[in-house]
């Protein structure tokens, strides 16, 4: 049956996952057994590209991140429509092109709105 | 018929309204950051009236665009009701935003217009996808509108409750729709109607479950018990004109979608779902009216009154004898409901804004402060309660007669009994207006701004006019071709 | 057993988890995530019906594209309202929001 074939294709994925998990586990375990152990303060501190770490690890994000996230969602979702449209543009012809232009025009108005409202500025 | 050679002129009103809404939206952000732009309000009313004329011209004959979008008598009547309702809401809003300078007027009006566009798409869609997109365009705009006073804790709290519960309701509707699509293999309502009788024979439980999920979701949108819990909170927290929008336009559009889905998509299995609606109608009428009695805030009272009215509107759905009769009953009551609720909300906005208090006692001594408003409010309340010579009376009377014809006597009895209960709380407002003295720190005379008084007068003339000449409207409705 | 049943079971489980989260969670961001979970369970149903359902056709996939879009719009609006709420109250705990009560 077609569905059995579909599931049997996943055998390779399962093997791949098993190898993927096994490789780091095995190599790290051997490394721990073999390497010398000599910890001191500087070695245990958080690595921040060589600078001394400052502040807490769990910080509160600035509220502007959320606004940028909202902006991002809109244009991320645009792709959901663009992709199937691009695949079947050959059959859609001029009508399809015009429809998509109208769609993008409306989105562009939204972008213009957020530009004018200074949402895109970071301060 | 494919999308290429379809008769796109059927969609003219929607396309024109969309362009006008986008123009207003663009004008707003191109004319600077000021919040106060009263010309946009006037422009919005003009565009709604222009669209109403276009609906009357282009939607006169039935037609469809490739199974997705249909134009028929039902769509035309409901679109006109919705457009005029929004025009009234904007007229009330012009007074409100004049007093609340923290409202961005351009965004407010363009959101109202987008919501209207969603409602228009909803009532004339013949496909689950179009219907859902229209519903969400209306709902998402309404979420924003409910939280429009963004520096006010109550308003934002109402908005977040509305988003969370509204999103859950949408998920319920979609979950039901996904099973309907899965078993029928189509999203077109006409094709679904052909496929469901055999499916009900083959998979009775799955189909019943799918219908129950959809009823739960739609029941939320039109606020019937037991899915009404959001209504009082959102109505209280939202700005008052937005409350009137929710209770008038959003509810009528919600009924439009229920009727479209169940009378076009599931008409062939009417017996399977009619009884669910009968039960919902009964408990909605009982609970809505009973809880309204104990309310002390006028917006919460109107919320429960709206819940009860939704119960009356569900009665003809459950007691169909002939489709045309049912549709004409519901539409007549929808017209009456629009007139009386919009008029009442115009007065409520004015009074609660003037006294800066939304308790029932803010109405005290209204007869001495503004006699015309007090008398108009009395007539709207009598119409909501269903006393004669008002449109509300005839609407309720037709529904009552219909229920008896369908031999659903128990439903008719509940309707009469709960209508009597409703006199108590409507009488509470009248008592405040006529038998109490004005509060000492209120002005002795209440000045009525022009847009509000225009809405009140038009609603008053309509409520009494359709009460005296009810047969003009019913004759027109009886000869209408409701569904394509 | 129909092959589609497995996918429907997955959809049903996701829907129930989402509904449970909406009803019990106190953090509004988590509640919004749970709503998203419910909408995604619908997508699983639609796509499953559209590829291995009894009447398989492409309409379900188109439907699910619209569901994805609208879910995103809803979450965007939800987040925006959440920011406004946070600025007013300095808290996004559901229990603390009780200004609107029956009298």
From TrEMBL, chain A:
Which Gene3D superfamilies does the entry link to? NADH:ubiquinone/plastoquinone oxidoreductase, chain 3 (1.20.58.1610)
User: Species name for this entry?
Assistant: Texcoconibacillus texcoconensis
Superkingdom assignment: Bacteria
Q: What membrane topology does this protein have? A: Multi-pass membrane protein
Quote the EC number.
7.1.1.-
What Gene Ontology terms describe where this protein resides (cellular component)? NADH dehydrogenase complex; plasma membrane
- Do the record's keywords include Translocase? yes
Q: Which Pfam families match?
A: Oxidored_q4 (PF00507)
Q: What class of enzyme is it?
A: translocase
Q: What is this protein called?
A: NADH-quinone oxidoreductase subunit A
Q: Which reaction does it catalyse?
A: a quinone + NADH + 5 H(+)(in) = a quinol + NAD(+) + 4 H(+)(out)
From TrEMBL, chain B:
What GO MF terms are annotated?
NADH dehydrogenase (quinone) (non-electrogenic) activity; NADH dehydrogenase (ubiquinone) activity; quinone binding
Membrane topology according to the record: Multi-pass membrane protein
Catalytic activity, EC = 7.1.1.-
Q: Membrane-crossing residues? A: 6-27, 39-58, 73-96, 108-123, 129-148, 160-183, 203-230, 242-263, 275-294, 301-323, 329-351, 372-394, 409-430, 451-474
This protein's UniProt keywords:
Cell membrane, Membrane, NAD, Quinone, Translocase, Transmembrane, Transmembrane helix, Transport
Question: Which residues constitute the signal peptide according to the record?
Answer: none
Name one matching Pfam family: Proton_antipo_M
Any single biological process term in GO:
ATP synthesis coupled electron transport
Can the keyword Cell membrane be found in this entry's annotation? yes
* Entry GO terms, CC: plasma membrane
**Record-annotated NADH:quinone oxidoreductase/Mrp antiporter transmembrane domain positions:** 125-421
> Where located?
Cell membrane; Membrane
Q: Organism's domain of life?
A: Bacteria
Provide the reaction this enzyme catalyses: a quinone + NADH + 5 H(+)(in) = a quinol + NAD(+) + 4 H(+)(out)
Q: What's the family?
A: Belongs to the complex I subunit 2 family.
Job description of the protein: NDH-1 shuttles electrons from NADH, via FMN and iron-sulfur (Fe-S) centers, to quinones in the respiratory chain. The immediate electron acceptor for the enzyme in this species is believed to be a menaquinone. Couples the redox reaction to proton translocation (for every two electrons transferred, four hydrogen ions are translocated across the cytoplasmic membrane), and thus conserves the redox energy in a proton gradient.
Q: How does it assemble?
A: NDH-1 is composed of 14 different subunits. Subunits NuoA, H, J, K, L, M, N constitute the membrane sector of the complex.
Protein's name according to its UniProt entry: NADH-quinone oxidoreductase subunit N
The gene name on file is nuoN
